[in-house]
Write a structure and sequence with these properties.
The structure holds two protein chains of two kinds.
Chain A: E1 3-5, E2 10-12, E3 22-31, E4 42-49, E5 61-62, E6 68-69, E7 74-76, E8 90-95, E9 105-112, H1 115-118, E10 125-134, E11 140-145, E12 155-164, E13 167-177, H2 180-187
Chain B: E1 3-5, E2 10-12, E3 22-31, H1 39-45, E4 56-63, E5 75-76, E6 88-90, E7 104-109, E8 119-126, H2 129-132, E9 139-148, E10 154-160, E11 169-178, E12 181-191, H3 196-202
Parallel strand pairs in B: 1-10
Antiparallel strand pairs in B: 2-12, 3-7, 3-9, 4-5, 4-8, 6-7, 8-11, 9-10, 11-12
The chains are: A mainly beta, B mainly beta.
């Protein structure tokens, strides 16, 4: 049975699930139920961070235009442009045991593509969640529903997988930011 | 001092203001000024309905917890000005939208809203839009604001700044329950539904 997290909560992933290595990080959302005339294109991305909390290079920023990172240990399965339907809208496959030792954290974010031009923000997005599924058994291990926290933000850092001793843990972050993906990219140390 | 909202913004209305109950929701708009140059000809040719008055109507959909309109009585508009529980009262129709300030007003007693109602969606639409070939491209300065009836303080103000050309209805914002509090969300989305009846159908 999945553990339902609340904001700020940290849980152990590998310690309570010995042998776990392949996980699927599923990200889901529902967009504006009103006819805004513009599609909502939400994108998920992963920042692979070193001990300083920065991406060492562009290769450590995994998103729709760079779908693999960490030497193939992190793989984004591709862009979903509408967020329609039930279940995960985008997924990231992570092989925890294959992540290079230089990477301490994998931070997951959801951003709104072209938010400014389309006049969109997370106030128009509901039912966002992140969940972690055992890639071998398909069992849902952790689920974090982000709830009603967002308003005018255009980027949300949903959570992070991080090393703690020899284990991997998950932290439910749920922090919103303005400035979209670009601001996150800068915050995590890339200048593009 | 009023909080000026931007699209998508949500704010808590009653938290820290537990005595708040009687509020006025004011909806305003202006017809786009007709261009002086060439006015004679364009009036003669009726250029895109420019000559006729645009009659906007404000209405409120009282929705249940699943976001559904469960009874006809839960649509408050010029033809049904008062909700069954008496909590929502529409102060009446304004046919032109001229002049400053609120064009139509809706008074709401939050504490009297039936527990089955979870969401109040505020809509402005153009009366007879299809027949008169009118749309929200002919309307400007649309806003929704919430005023505390006791203190007369304006609590929130949201100016709808987009170009809504081609749209015949406008979802301005919504009041909704969250736990024991009421919150307000600035929506500002246009809709293609030509009248309030078809908007209501969307929620049925």
């Amino acid at each position: 049975m999945a553990i339902n997290l609340s904001k700020g909560q940290k849980v152990d992933l590998t310690k309570s699930n010995p042998g776990l290595s392949k996980v699927v990080v599923g990200l889901g959302w529902d967009t504006n139920k009103y006819d805004g005339g513009q599609d909502f294109d939400l994108d998920s991305s992963v920042f692979l961070l070193n001990g300083e909390g920065k991406t060492a290079s562009e290769a450590d920023f995994v998103f729709y235009n760079n779908t693999t990172g960490a030497g193939g240990a992190v793989e984004h399965t591709g862009d979903n442009k509408t967020g329609e339907g039930e279940g995960d809208d985008e997924q990231v496959n992570v092989n925890l045991s294959a992540i290079p030792a230089s990477i301490e954290k994998a931070t997951f974010a959801i951003t709104i593509h072209d938010a400014e031009a389309r006049g969109q923000n997370f106030g128009q997005v509901s039912n966002s969640y992140v969940r972690i599924v055992n890639g071998d058994t398909n069992e849902e291990l952790i689920r974090y529903d982000l709830g009603e926290d967002f308003s005018i933000e255009t980027a949300v850092v949903v959570g992070e997988l991080y090393r703690h001793g020899g284990e991997w843990k998950f932290n439910a972050i749920g922090s919103g930011y303005q400035g979209g993906l670009e601001s996150l990219v800068k915050d995590f140390g890339l200048n593009s | 001092m009023a909080i000026n909202l931007v699209k998508g913004q949500k704010i808590d209305l009653t938290k820290g203001r537990s005595s708040l109950s009687s509020i006025m929701v004011g909806l305003g708009w202006d017809p786009v000024a007709t261009k002086k140059s060439g006015g004679f000809l364009s009036n003669l040719l009726g250029g895109g309905g420019g000559g006729a008055d645009v009659d906007c109507d404000a209405s409120v959909l009282l929705l249940d917890e699943n976001g559904k309109l469960t009874a006809k009585e839960n649509l408050i508009y010029f033809g049904n000005k008062k909700s069954k529980d008496g909590s929502v009262v529409h102060s009446g129709d304004n046919l032109t939208g001229e002049g400053d300030g609120d064009d139509e007003m809706i008074n709401i007693d939050l504490k009297r809203i039936s527990p089955s109602i979870h969401r109040l969606v505020f809509v402005v639409n153009i009366y007879n839009a299809q027949k008169k070939k009118q749309d929200f491209g002919m309307i400007e300065n649309a806003f929704i604001r919430l005023v505390d009836n006791q203190s007369k303080e304006e609590l929130v103000h949201y100016n709808l700044t987009e170009n809504y050309a081609g749209k015949m209805s406008l979802i301005t914002g919504e009041l909704y329950r969250q736990g024991t509090e009421w919150k307000f969300s600035a929506i500002g989305e246009g809709a293609s539904e030509p009248d309030i009846g078809s908007i209501a159908n969307k929620y049925s």
